[in-house]
Amino acid sequence: MAQIGCSLDDNIHYIKESLGYSNDIVIREVVLNSLEPVRGAVLYADGMVDSYLVQAVLIDSLLYKMRLKEWEGIREDEFVPFLKDSVLAVGDMGDLFDFPTLFTALLTGCVIILVDGCSQGIHVGLQEWKDRGVTEPSSQTVIRGPRESFTETLRTNITLLRRRISSEKLWIEINRIGEETKTEVAIVYMKGIVEEGVVEEVRNRLDRISIDGILESGMIEELIQDEAYTPFPTISNSERPDVVAANLLEGRVAILVDGTPFVLTVPSLFVEFFHSAEDYYQRFDFSTLIRMLRFACFLIALLAPSLYIAITTFHQEMLPTQLLISLAAQREGVPFPAFIEAIMMEVAFEILREAGIRMPRAVGQAISIVGTLVIGQAAVEAGIVSAAMVIVVSITAISSFIFPASNMSITVRILRFPLMVLAASFGIYGIIVGMLALVLHLCSLRSFGVPYMESFAPFSLKEQRDTIFRLPRWALDKRPESITKNNLRRQSKGIKPLPPQK
Q1: Per-state percent for the chain, helix, strand, coil, to nearest 5
Q2: Entry pTM
């Protein structure tokens, strides 16, 4: 029974049976016309609709306004259009002709109206459910900048973007993905700025998804990314509306998934994962210094343990004599080689890091800090590791926390171990070979057709205005050509600030 029938009793029985007689499905039968009785039914999922509007607006319209309307001469097949045009005082309405569409509307918070004798129904959008509300971002904090973050409700997230971009060029397309969950997924872009080929590619990749359910944007990310076997993220995500709005204005496409506060943006470049929202709210000189620090910390977090292993094992001549004597004295009672030391300390720190995240918030941070200090000090006093190794592992761990994008931090943590193996096997030569392989891999990646290392490889001098360095705001007068070729001009020329004329 796919199509809605004319018998109200049969339709209600089929709905109850299909939903397993669930208690949260409310069915309110009403008599629409007392002179010539016409039965109807209002159906909704309890907790997903605004109960006050259902009672005070919808049912009130059906029970009382119908008494004032003239029913004479209206055929049964005209009842539903009559209700829509002359009775119901709501704006969001649509027609229903089959049960799959009816179930989707009912279970996503719509109110369903069925009339006896009509093989057509109405769905009314009166959704309302409890959500977390707009709070401060927890993973992308800033000192200066907006304090709003996305929520788990798609409509709220779209509203947050509309507030920042009040333009008719902001286009939104909503689809449902997931055979069972029917999760709403929105494609958001700036018409006239974005490359149409990128939008079409996003549509095609989302349309190819055939899965029973989508619960978080990370599931979408895995299913649409260009390269599956790479540790580097090729799709960026953010829980900040200002970051997503800035990406849209640069010509990117945003993918919003109902049920998660993290929004995906494509295409993404390698350099983008080192940029923070605060870089554009502070002075350009301060932002440039902080960016340079992030790139330096990337190299420290990636190479510090490997270089320590390689130098202390194979290339002691590279160290000053006094430092070499000091390191030799520290390692005098240590029974393990530098590689084993580094592996033990790195694994211990990763365990403490994960424990601090998973433990209750009230004690997690304290346990991770105290555990690190106690274990490091005890390991040195017991002669298991040297003090220099504890320093190297500590500065490596601290450097990995400086990245604004947590997924890039995870990438560095993964790549650190194979580089340590190469350093223990071949010394600095192994590190050089590993870095060459890493650079070649980065240059082979693409994000929705855009080279991942764009602006560096191939090198573009014009694009260096907002990569490692950030020029003043008045100098950023064009959008990045690596993202879009449409409507490149962002602001008028000649707006450089000048001192007042005397």
Answers
A1: 50, 15, 35
A2: 0.86
